[in-house]
Amino acid sequence: MSKFKKKTGTSQEIPTSALPDIIFMLLFFFMVTTVMRTDDLLITQKLPQASQLSKIEKKSLVSYIFIGTPKEVTKYGDEPKIQANGVLMEPEDIALFVEQEKTKLPESDRNKITMSMKISQEAKMGIVTDVQEELKKANARKILYASTPKLVK
Amino acid sequence: MKKSKRASAEVNAGSMADIAFLLLIFFLVTTTIASDKGILLLLPPKADPNEEQIDVKIKDKNLFKILVNSSDRVLVNGEPWTQPLENLKPKVQEFVLNNGRKEDLSESPKKAIVSFKTDRGTSYEKFIGILDVLHLSYNEIYAKKMGMTLEEFNNFDRKDADKKDKYDEIRKTIPKQISIAEPSKIGN
Fold it and tell me: Which domain of life is it from (chain A) (predicted)?
């Protein structure tokens, strides 16, 4: 049998040596485009646990507010601070921030804006309420207390 | 050219693709795109200063009062609560589904209101803990009414018209009335 096979001079194998390169290209593409985190956090975060969680349907309508103890304690003190838009701010500035976020949305969706509150569990309710009062003023009433899932016993 | 008898000098690179694939799949799987999950809440609208405040009278028995002070101690209906928070669940459910049987509990699920008040010094962890238990109590009632387990209820598809209608119907008879009062300004 082998006698006959040898007669055809061309190799029957498909050259696959370029395949790894293609796959590597894909791999690099994914590694480069994956954005791990958009906001550079200036505060430490340890979200509380909860079991009854809901998901947000429309991600484009979500803006984030972070509250937690600053990472640089010597610079900002050890009291929980508010971070939004990449900077630390006071509760009074929240209304302005919400307005800015609203202008990014199409006009029909501006009242549906959802504020995702990523609040560290050691924060006190005082600062949370101050933020909520500002949100009421800015008419961004839909909020989400971000939390990590907990198993129900 | 004479055919050499030695093995070919090429490196067998066929499995290279497999290795690359493995890496690719590893990255695809481990990459977690930050998921947004949490407890949804709709804040009440800002009080209009021009409008006169109407005092709504609610019977004391239709209120389930939870109070947390600045050192995270809990008062439930005026009594200190020392048990774990999960034990609040049967209490809340008994209160909501009482339907006028017991004198000191709610008249009907529609009239039942869970009032939750914190202090400025209350920790956020405690706040979420209690809010979660309250949601759990109500969700368990809904799940039972819909003939699902709690897990099925939490994951059911809100786009499924049949189930959504049924859920809305139940929500009408047993509304989730959790009132979060503004914190008092004692602590902090």
Answer: Bacteria
Model ipTM?
0.73
pLDDT tens-digit readout, A115-147: 888 899 888 888 888 888 888 888 888 888 988
Pairing of strands A54-55, A49-50: unpaired
DSSP state of A42: S
Q: Go through A119-133 and write b for each residue having 16 or more CB atoms within 10 A of its CB, e for each that does not.
A: bbbebbbbbbbbbbb
CA distances from B122 to B4, B72, B117, B126 (A): 83, 6, 10, 7
- pLDDT tens for B24-78 read 888 777 766 666 788 888 888 877 777 777 777 778 888 888 888 888 888 888 8
Kindly state whether B84 is in contact with chain A, defined as any CB-CB distance less than 8 angstroms. Answer: no
| Size (chain A), residues | 153
How close does chain A come to B58, measured CA to CA in Å? 25
CB distance A146–B38 less than 8 Å?
yes
